[in-house]
Amino acid sequence: MNKSAVIIIDMLNDFVTGDLKCERAKHIIPNLKRLVEAARKHGVLVIYSNDAHYPNDFEVVQRWGKHAIKGTKGAEVIPELKPTEKDFTVEKRTYSGFYETGLDPLLRSLYNGEGAKTVILGGLHTHICVRHTAADAFFRGYNIIIANDGVESFTQEDHEQGLKYLEYVYNAKIMTVDEIIKEMSKKA
Ligand code: ZN
Asked: What is the pLDDT of residues 137-177, one digit of tens each?
């Protein structure tokens, strides 16, 4: 787990309780809370990759309707997972956390410029933003770990197919949050 970063994707009010709410998101909250707390404790950096849309963004207008509009309550991280001042937040305007954002330079600047080598992804949704962020991580040569009890989708089918795809196409290592925490504590 050396030189890794935890990336928490779209755990925002609108995705959990607001405009695009997902009932199934609730059960991953305590798992992600344990994950970010363990990461901070073991010196693994935590990055929040958050939708921060303009109302006229293509994705908003063409596909999902209003959600996570920059500057609104809906675009804030849910209170249970509130970032600390040690964490980073990188705003995005579509599915991938890398697409036209500062995420890649941030990851490369971590650990005294040696850069993070592995990204540990959690959040929403397994088959949409997690998948697209994993794609861009894979294209850039990062190892990918997915917390299977730390990601969710609107349906079980989307979640399971999403995990299969992530493993098959991006060579993502699928682990439980507890397994990830165990690894973090080993090498810290
Ligand atoms: Zn969005």
From this structure: 999 999 999 999 999 999 999 999 999 999 999 999 999 99
Compute the distance from residue 44 Cα to the ligand 1 centre, in Å.
Answer: 27
C-alpha 129 to ligand 1 mean position (Å): 8
Q: How many CB atoms lie within 10 A of CB 111?
A: 16
Q: How far is CA 31 from CA 22, 69, 81, 139, 148, in A?
A: 16, 26, 10, 28, 10
C-alpha of residue 37 to centroid of ligand 1, in Å: 26
Q: Structural domains in the chain?
A: 4-187 (3.40.50.850)
Ligand 1 midpoint to CA 58 (Å): 9
pTM of structure: 0.96
Q: Is the peptide bond before 127 cis (omega within 30 degrees of 0)?
A: no
